[in-house]
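Subject: Sanity check before I submit

Could someone independently write out the structure tokens for this chain? I want to compare against mine line by line before I put it in a report. The sequence has 123 residues.
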Amino acid sequence: MKKGAGIIAAKHKDIVIAGMLFTLCRNVFSELRAFLLRKHKKLCPNNLFYLEAINYVSRVGFEYFGVGRSRIYCATYNYKKQSRAKPVQLYCQYLLNKANKIRAFNVHNKKYQLAVEVLKNNS
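---
Independent answer below. Compare away.
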């Protein structure tokens, strides 16, 4: 498969304890989001995801393995750097249509609270 999307799941005692959502496009494997049940964090299921994903990527000939965005020098950035990931500056383009400026995303806005709580409690 050279393009598409998928999920990798980790089970412990017949219970799914973690998962990774990824996309495949052109020559890039991109991890979009990884989730785990906090009570199973000590089992390090995310390490298994990355190992399996890297093995898959190398078997099918993908050139790049994207591990997602991180703010510079935050914990996930430092973790990825330890794994020899190379940072790449990402640029965004916006179609403003009739707007004059880009809308700011405010995590404290009440309409986003459910999404914020779900992501916070499942990461």
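---
OP: Matches mine. For the report I'm noting this point. Residues 18 and 36 are 4 Å apart (CA to CA).
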